[in-house]
Write a structure and sequence with these properties.
This protein has about 100 residues and is an all-beta fold. Helix content is about 0%, strand content about 40%. The chain has a five-stranded mixed barrel with strand order 1-2-3-5-4. Strand 4 and strand 5 form a beta hairpin. The radius of gyration is 15 Å and the shape is globular. The protein starts with 20 loop residues before the first strand and ends in a 5-residue tail after the last strand.
Amino acid sequence: PQADCPKCIKSDMDWVPLSGEGELLTCTMIVVKPPTFSHYKDYIVGIAQMKEGVRVMAWLNIDDPKKIKPKMKVKLTTTVREPEGFITYEFVPLGEGI
């Protein structure tokens, strides 16, 4: 959460709880990483349209990139990135064959 809108810089915002259910809009595999992430194997970041209408960017937790499908259903969760212990968002695919 943040206190100000990144577009208009206003603070008059509402807290909207999310169900965590969304649809993947786009994704990309990160192979050239910033130095702080260089110890991670290549990873996928995606943007999903959540059921409530907002878009969220998060890591995509999937075992095989060939399983990624347009408009696939995903669930937004949190995970701990080791060894730093950082809590980050990630999408977990839902549905058949995943």
